[in-house]
Write a structure and sequence with these properties.
Number of helices of chain A: 4
Helix content of chain A: 25-40%
CATH topology of the largest domain in chain A: hypothetical protein PF0899 fold
Number of domains of chain B: 1
Largest sheet of chain B: 8 strands, mixed
CATH class of the largest domain in chain A: Alpha Beta
Structural class of chain B: alpha/beta
Order of helices and strands of chain A: HEHEEEHHEE
Distance between the termini of chain B: 42 Å
Strand content of chain A: 25-35%
Oligomer: heterodimer
CATH class of chain B: Alpha Beta
Shape of chain B: globular
Number of helices of chain B: 11
CATH architecture of the largest domain in chain A: 2-Layer Sandwich
Radius of gyration of chain B: 17 Å
CATH topology of chain B: Rossmann fold
Number of domains of chain A: 2
Largest sheet of chain A: 3 strands, mixed
Distance between the termini of chain A: 39 Å
Strand order of the largest sheet of chain B: 5-6-2-7-1-8-9-10
Number of strands of chain B: 10
Number of strands of chain A: 6
């Protein structure tokens, strides 16, 4: 599963933060999942929990918070703004899958619904982002 | 925080050598050199990966004649084996359609692929870079600790000027430079002395090979070209 690789990046980020901040335990990791990448929330959470098993002392009481963020786009050409679900009807399963692996290919498969330009901005909701890492400092 | 950047070097932990094949301009043979270098190393028994990072004009798949291949999902994505080496390209996800992206988009796509591609054990990872110094090159410098640059030039004064700028930037950032390859060499033209004045190694020359075009799309034929023979010599010299 592709989610595993991204979950691993989140755990490594938490470990790095713990080292930098002097945390002996990570209490909470809050991750934002952008709608465009269509990450399977359950799979992603399972992967994080599996990976942190290997570091029991740092992650023994870690709460994983996954927050979904709606994807919003703005056309650089005509200024039109739209949501992910406004423009997915014509996508076939292969195109959905390609966007799942590399969200930027949405510029090919989901042009601006108003002027058809591929030149749009992903305003929010692209992919995986760590919002916060809360830890307990060493005494 | 973008978590992906923290996993990139883990993906490359078992890769012995990372070589970014770069140059100041398009059309100077970076892709041909990258592909033939990768094929030559693979044929010599090394474990090799090839990554096409020229998202504006991906062409390594055309040189390799790669059709109908797709990465497998296994704790990330595992590049398919093409002619004995692992080959990764944005082309798997674009279906050969035009990817019109602004720079920030390319930056995101490169980070995504570097973060999720599971290369496993490799002796060499060859990166076919886009022309010039842009976001992709800066990302490779920033995120790939082991990278060394191999710079391609032709005898064109225009190209050489851009090569100088590329070398200056790499030196300024203290990034390892393997050296410069003189590609498309014509008779009675030598850049060796000129390149040595730039205080970088001269790696060798590759003669202009009119037969290369006919071999495009067929790795076996590519390895039989004069271009490939020159690449072979260049590797042996090192």
């Amino acid at each position: 599963m592709h989610e595993w690789a991204l979950a691993e990046s989140v755990v490594l980020t938490a470990e790095k933060t713990a080292k930098e901040q002097g945390f002996e335990e990570i209490r909470e990791i809050t991750v934002q999942l952008g709608q465009l990448q269509q990450i399977e929330k359950d799979v992603f959470e399972f992967a994080i929990k599996e990976i942190i098993q290997t570091q029991k002392s740092l992650f023994k009481k870690t709460n994983i918070q996954l927050q979904e963020e709606k994807a919003v786009f703005k056309c650089q050409s005509c200024g039109h703004k739209w949501m992910f679900e406004d423009n997915t009807k014509k996508l076939n399963p292969e195109e959905f899958e390609a966007i799942h692996f590399v969200p930027e290919v949405a510029h090919i498969y989901m042009p601006c619904p108003q002027c058809k330009s591929p030149d749009f901005e992903i305003v929010q909701g692209r992919g995986v982002w760590v919002n916060s890492i809360v830890g307990k400092e060493r005494d | 925080m973008d978590p992906r950047v923290n996993v990139i070097n883990k993906r490359l932990a078992n890769v012995g050598n990372i070589i970014a094949v770069s140059g100041g301009k398009g059309g100077i043979g970076k892709s041909s050199f990258s592909v033939i270098l990768a094929l030559t190393l693979s044929q010599a028994g090394h474990k090799v990966g090839l990554m096409d990072l020229d998202f504006w004009g991906p062409s390594a798949h055309v040189l390799l004649g790669s059709h109908g291949n797709f990465p497998e999902e296994e704790k990330g994505i595992v590049p398919p084996q093409i002619h004995g080496m692992k080959f990764m390209s944005i082309i798997y996800y674009t279906e050969d359609k035009t990817l019109a992206l602004r720079r920030s988009g390319f930056d995101q796509a490169v980070i995504e692929l570097l973060a999720v591609t599971q290369w496993g054990d490799l002796d060499y990872l060859i990166m076919d870079m886009p022309p010039g110094i842009g976001d992709v090159t800066l990302d490779v410098i920033r995120f790939m600790e082991k990278v060394r640059f191999c710079i391609i030039t032709t005898h064109s004064k225009v190209v050489i000027e851009t090569v100088k700028k590329t070398l200056n930037m790499l030196k300024q950032l203290k990034i390892p430079i393997m050296g410069v390859v003189h590609n498309m060499k014509k008779e009675n033209v030598s850049l060796e002395d000129q390149i040595k004045t730039l205080d970088v190694p001269f790696l060798g020359k590759i003669d202009f090979d009119p037969g290369l075009e006919d071999a495009v799309g067929d790795p076996k034929k590519l390895l039989e070209t004069r271009f490939a023979k020159n690449v072979g010599k260049l590797i042996l010299q090192r």
